[in-house]
Amino acid sequence: MEWDDDTLRRFREGTPEVLAEVYRAHAEPLARLLKAAAWRGTFTRLRNAMELENTLLETFARAFEPRTRTAYNGSRPYAHFLMGIARNVLLEQSREREVVGRDEPFEGLTESSGEDGGLAELLEDREVEALLAAFKDGLTREEHRLFELRFGEGVAQEEAATALGLTRIQVRRREFGLKSRLLGFLQSKGYLEDLETQGWSFFKRRGAR
Amino acid sequence: MSGCDDRQAKKAMAALFEKGTDEGLDAAGFERLRAHLATCPACQETYDRLSRVESVLEQRALPKARGALLEQALWARMAQAAGPAPRPVMRPARRWFTSPFLVPLSLGAAAAAVALVVVGPSLQRPDVTATQEWQARSASPGVGAWGVRAFCVATTGTVLAEARPGGTLACAEGNAVQFSYTAPERVHLSLEGLSKTGEPLRFFPSEGAAPEVAAGVDVPLPFSTPVQGGWLTDAVRVRASFTDAQGRSLADTQVTLTPAAR
């Protein structure tokens, strides 16, 4: 996002639209950087989705405090500013949990390093990708096309509807059906199986076994 | 596998995965889920695995639905932080609303539900003697075109009550107070109230000198103030001061806030 004088002024004033824009522009890149760091061995707890989300939330909450907003001068990249806050958040959390972790230099992380996940992450992703590929094999041609449009190519529901000759509502319903079946499929393949408990009836109802 | 019999949490996770925020999980449900996850390693693992699938599907580190729900959680957290903490007043007795109550109310409610009147460039400097719109919202019709209205907004964004300049707004704990102003020209604006103990409460700006605001009709202020923490247990008179760049008073209007039963 562009940081012109007006944007910086409104950011410092706490204008909600600007804060929302900043969050939306930086949440995903920051998540990528944190995740990449976690899989490289720094702050490994961030491999856990909830830990990652908690760290993101805490980082933005601090970044949007009035004093912190005022401290941002608009000249250095805001992503670097955020990373500094994230690093402090993580170090504080580590101290609170009495975890002595490897304190690798966060400042060394760049945008490109976000793409550089660890081998373990790669292997886990491959496991999921293989499962998804197997799931897609069982889809009809139309379902496969919808799956590809929405998840492979990431097109909006409206565009997918146009491409498939459906209404947006139809796309939404079919997408919901696909995801429900995917949940059942993941369970049937053991990806979620070991998590099944007595109260796990939601997945059982979809009974993909 | 150690069991977790919280079916609501499991349904919430599935709903988040299947439908995202589109009829899936709302902000309140997400908060309940997060609270459960914090104490349930089994569900945390499920959440983690579902998150991984979503990430691979969307090619994102932060799946869109979770990003959107986290954003709402962020605003809610900031709103909570904005509540004036009940603490002993130090001299000089001046308490500030240090942090704004953000998007869910101020954008959702103020920008949409509060019947915002969009002011086009042609109205930037209207003829106040000829424009009924300005007159109607003035604190002193026929005299000036300055005024502040107050709205009581529920967490859902619904406007529950409103008060015109000089009026009284009743707002219950748990809701939020949103102000809008009407000014015929660019002006510096501040809104301050007095609690029952005589303690100053600053609604706008949250800190610093009165900022310059643009001319407009019923322009919502960027922040709402949540009614929480006991600051609205008795009538609070909120004074809106419109001043020029030299600090000279152009107009003063007042709205009284009172607590309402839930």
What would you note in describing this structure?
Chain B: InterPro entries: Anti_sigma_zinc_sf (IPR041916). Chain B: Keywords: Membrane, Transmembrane, Transmembrane helix. Chain B: It comes from Corallococcus llansteffanensis. Chain B: The chain crosses the membrane at residues 101-123. The complex is a heterodimer of chains A (209) and B (262). Chain A has 209 residues and is mainly alpha-helical. Chain A is 67% helix and 0% strand. Chain A has 2 domains: 5-115, Rna Polymerase Sigma Factor, Chain: A, CATH 1.10.1740; 119-205, Orthogonal Bundle (Arc Repressor Mutant, subunit A). Chain A is built from 10 helices and no strands. Chain B has 262 residues and is an alpha+beta fold. Chain B has 6 helices and 11 strands. In chain B, α1 packs across α2 (27-37) and α1 runs parallel beside α3. Chain B is elongated, with a radius of gyration of 22 Å. Chain B starts with 6 loop residues before the first helix and ends with a strand. Classes of the chains: A mainly alpha (209), B alpha+beta (262). At the A-B interface, α2, α3, α6, α9 and α10 of A face α1, α3, α4 and α5 of B.
